[in-house]
Specification:
Blueprint: H1 2-14, H2 17-24, H3 28-39, H4 58-67, H5 74-83, H6 90-108, E1 122-130, E2 133-140, E3 145-151, H7 156-170, E4 176-179, E5 186-190, E6 193-196, H8 198-207, E7 210-213, H9 223-243, H10 266-269, H11 302-310
Parallel strand pairs: 1-4, 4-7
Antiparallel strand pairs: 1-2, 2-3, 5-6
Helix pairs in contact: 1-2, 1-3, 2-3, 4-6
């Protein structure tokens, strides 16, 4: 359309077809055709949209994408589409599946709650367990203040006691406490909304905060505290468990053994006391019979094979690149 307007404007300026064609870089026949169509009051003829060859199976693909929550691939769907009458190429079918997946994710995509933090508003809490030790973690979202405590269970009374201690350490109460759907704090679910227990509601009313819960099966929405739980289990609880574990009675080291260093755990890297010995005695390794000596290569080495075939007397080969010897070989001649 813009090219037509440029042609018409050029023709109105110069008044000739060939002059307008020289200005617009086209032929005089094209200028004449555009000017006559404009004079007759007709625009560019609109071509009727032609449906794509995969429109007949779009409903089938959309249904399967919805049933699998956008996980199915075009390779799995193509045989069913062929049976339903799809005759196009695999490339066009992949384009259709990509469109339907994009549409499904835009309608049913994950939503991070809350989307943005503000100072002193959200306190995110979670529980973790390792070897029977329960780890309570809380993060004040905006300032990243972290609170970690160990407990023996995850009951409602324990959770609320941990929250009260966290509020005392903080020196205040946040506006919202965000948690996942804990069984100790969840009274029920109505229309995908969590109803807190009466005890938790009385606790929240006393401290004047609003209880909030994450979406179902979506722990990533509170990933800020999931990382803290992992840190509390690996770097705090695990070293304590190793420190208070019973000592291990190691067998006496046999003759010919050597000490081997033990890799440190994550807690030991941060300065925790070592609970395992610095060396673990291992029996001396004996070389199996039938193996070639260390100073020679395997029988398949071509250079070693040629050098051994040329020699008539025992000698040390230095032509092999894998030989461990650094001094020149000594040849022994028969007397």
């Amino acid at each position: 359309m813009r090219e037509e307007l440029d042609i018409i404007t050029a023709y109105q300026k110069v008044g000739t077809y060939r002059g307008a064609a020289d200005i617009c870089g086209t032929t005089h026949k094209t200028v004449k055709r555009v000017v006559e169509r404009h004079t007759a009051g007709q625009g560019r003829p609109v071509r009727a949209p032609r449906p794509a060859n995969y429109e007949a199976v779009r409903a089938l693909v959309a249904g399967d994408v919805k049933d699998t929550r956008g996980r199915i691939s075009a390779k799995r769907l193509l045989p069913r589409a062929r049976a339903a009458g799809f005759t196009g190429s695999a490339r066009n079918f992949r384009r259709l599946v990509a469109q339907e997946k994009t549409r499904y994710r835009s309608e049913h995509g994950r939503r991070h709650r809350p989307a943005s933090w503000s100072p002193g508003e959200h306190l995110v809490i979670d529980w973790g367990v390792i070897a029977g030790v329960h780890v309570f973690a809380a993060v004040l979202a905006w300032s990243r203040f972290r609170f970690v405590r160990l407990a023996a269970d995850e009951k409602a009374a324990t959770t609320m006691a941990m929250l009260a201690e966290c509020f005392e350490v903080l020196g205040g109460t946040p506006r919202v406490v965000l948690a996942d759907r804990m069984g100790c704090l969840k009274g029920g679910v109505v229309a995908n909304r969590v109803v807190p227990t009466a005890e938790y509601v009385r606790f929240a009313t006393h401290y004047r905060f609003r209880p909030d819960f994450c979406e179902a099966a979506d722990p990533e929405s509170k990933g800020i505290v999931e990382n803290l739980v992992r840190y509390g289990k690996d770097d705090l609880a695990l070293p304590l468990l190793l420190e208070h574990a019973a000592p291990v009675a190691w067998p006496p080291a046999p003759r010919g053994s050597w000490p081997t260093s033990v890799p440190r755990t994550s807690g030991q890297r941060h300065g925790a006391r070592r609970s395992t010995p610095r060396s673990i005695p291992r029996p001396a390794r004996s070389r199996p019979t039938g193996w070639p000596p260390r100073s020679t290569c395997s029988p398949s080495c071509p250079r070693c094979a040629r050098s051994s075939a040329r020699r008539r007397s025992p000698a040390r080969s230095t032509s092999c690149p894998r030989s461990a010897s650094a001094r020149p070989g000594t040849r022994f001649r028969p007397r």
